[in-house]
């Protein structure tokens, strides 16, 4: 940057470097997505098109920003994990948050028609983001467990609520019926009234989506010889596993290194 008499204005910028040697998590949240889902006719209680689009956005972000080791998403939010060793943008919070959320939002618009077909995008979606540092592996796992537990709680409620509404109950009546209820009560309503075993609902809805870099065979054309070449690459891939228990972390120890 060329020196000039105006350069002094840089002194007004605030230093926002995140603590060193800590996990960084960038959480992207949809703004006003209750209205957005109504305007765009999302299916209830879950719209697979929306989930697949959100997952696509997260995958594209991870393809672009190699430092991200994993991501977890549910509903209108996604959390991206950067390792303790990352020095992305010198660990500046504003740069990291703004880059990831803008990439996510632009991919949401770019790939909308791939998943929603003729359902026209009525207005620009909006997402906010923040960066939080977590001091050790256990706290990071607790954060991710919190988000997956939130997914389960919300999905159980929404599944029961919309089952009642679709059976003919008014939304206000369904809200009143479920007010103060526990998980066992909702499971009982689903099973006894609608013959739905909640545990048989697809894991993508109950557990959310986790994006990890999986070893995958990728075939491409060699620019030198024109022949097809197969290589093993780490490709961001969605899985729908329990990340609260120990088994997931035993199977993917590289995520905490």
From TrEMBL:
<feature type="binding site">
    <location>
        <position position="76"/>
    </location>
    <ligand>
        <name>Mg(2+) 2</name>
    </ligand>
</feature>
<keyword id="KW-0460">Magnesium</keyword>
<feature type="binding site">
    <location>
        <position position="29"/>
    </location>
    <ligand>
        <name>Mg(2+) 1</name>
    </ligand>
</feature>
<keyword id="KW-0548">Nucleotidyltransferase</keyword>
<dbReference type="GO" id="GO:0008193">
    <property type="term" value="F:tRNA guanylyltransferase activity"/>
</dbReference>
<comment type="function">
    <text>Adds a GMP to the 5'-end of tRNA(His) after transcription and RNase P cleavage.</text>
</comment>
<keyword id="KW-0342">GTP-binding</keyword>
<feature type="domain" description="Thg1 C-terminal">
    <location>
        <begin position="138"/>
        <end position="223"/>
    </location>
</feature>
<dbReference type="InterPro" id="IPR038469">
    <property type="entry name" value="tRNAHis_GuaTrfase_Thg1_sf"/>
</dbReference>
<protein>
    <recommendedName>
        <fullName>tRNA(His) guanylyltransferase</fullName>
        <ecNumber>2.7.7.79</ecNumber>
    </recommendedName>
</protein>
<dbReference type="Pfam" id="PF14413">
    <property type="entry name" value="Thg1C"/>
</dbReference>
<dbReference type="InterPro" id="IPR025845">
    <property type="entry name" value="Thg1_C_dom"/>
</dbReference>
<dbReference type="GO" id="GO:0000287">
    <property type="term" value="F:magnesium ion binding"/>
</dbReference>
<dbReference type="GO" id="GO:0006400">
    <property type="term" value="P:tRNA modification"/>
</dbReference>
<feature type="binding site">
    <location>
        <position position="30"/>
    </location>
    <ligand>
        <name>Mg(2+) 1</name>
    </ligand>
</feature>
<feature type="domain" description="tRNAHis guanylyltransferase catalytic">
    <location>
        <begin position="6"/>
        <end position="135"/>
    </location>
</feature>
<feature type="binding site">
    <location>
        <position position="76"/>
    </location>
    <ligand>
        <name>Mg(2+) 1</name>
    </ligand>
</feature>
<keyword id="KW-0547">Nucleotide-binding</keyword>
<feature type="binding site">
    <location>
        <position position="29"/>
    </location>
    <ligand>
        <name>Mg(2+) 2</name>
    </ligand>
</feature>
<dbReference type="Pfam" id="PF04446">
    <property type="entry name" value="Thg1"/>
</dbReference>
<keyword id="KW-0479">Metal-binding</keyword>
<feature type="binding site">
    <location>
        <begin position="75"/>
        <end position="76"/>
    </location>
    <ligand>
        <name>GTP</name>
    </ligand>
</feature>
<dbReference type="GO" id="GO:0005525">
    <property type="term" value="F:GTP binding"/>
</dbReference>
<keyword id="KW-0808">Transferase</keyword>
<dbReference type="InterPro" id="IPR007537">
    <property type="entry name" value="tRNAHis_GuaTrfase_Thg1"/>
</dbReference>
<comment type="similarity">
    <text>Belongs to the tRNA(His) guanylyltransferase family.</text>
</comment>
<feature type="binding site">
    <location>
        <begin position="29"/>
        <end position="34"/>
    </location>
    <ligand>
        <name>GTP</name>
    </ligand>
</feature>
<dbReference type="InterPro" id="IPR024956">
    <property type="entry name" value="tRNAHis_GuaTrfase_cat"/>
</dbReference>
<keyword id="KW-0819">tRNA processing</keyword>
């Amino acid at each position: 940057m060329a020196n000039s008499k105006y350069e002094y204005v840089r002194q007004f910028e605030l230093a926002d470097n995140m603590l060193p040697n800590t996990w960084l998590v960038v959480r992207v949240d949809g703004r006003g997505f209750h209205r957005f889902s109504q305007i765009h006719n999302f299916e209830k209680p879950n719209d697979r098109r929306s989930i697949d689009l959100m997952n696509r956005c997260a995958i594209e972000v991870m393809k672009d920003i190699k430092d991200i080791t994993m991501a977890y998403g549910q509903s209108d939010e996604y959390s991206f994990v950067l390792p303790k060793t990352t020095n992305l943008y010198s660990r500046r919070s504003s740069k990291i948050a703004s880059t990831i959320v803008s990439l996510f939002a632009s991919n949401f618009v770019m790939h909308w028609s791939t998943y929603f077909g003729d359902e026209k995008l009525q207005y620009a979606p909006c997402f906010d983001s923040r960066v939080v540092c977590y001091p050790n592996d256990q706290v990071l796992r607790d954060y991710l467990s919190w988000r997956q537990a939130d997914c389960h709680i919300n999905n159980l409620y929404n599944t029961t609520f919309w089952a009642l509404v679709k059976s003919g109950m008014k939304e206000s009546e369904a809200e009143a019926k479920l007010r103060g209820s526990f998980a066992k009560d909702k499971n009982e309503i689903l099973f006894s009234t609608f013959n739905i075993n909640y545990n048989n609902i697809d894991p993508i809805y109950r557990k959310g989506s986790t994006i990890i870099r999986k070893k995958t065979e990728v075939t491409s054309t060699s620019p030198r010889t024109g022949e097809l070449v197969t290589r093993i690459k780490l490709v961001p891939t969605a899985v729908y596993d329990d990340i609260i228990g120990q088994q997931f972390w035993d199977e993917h120890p590289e995520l905490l290194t």
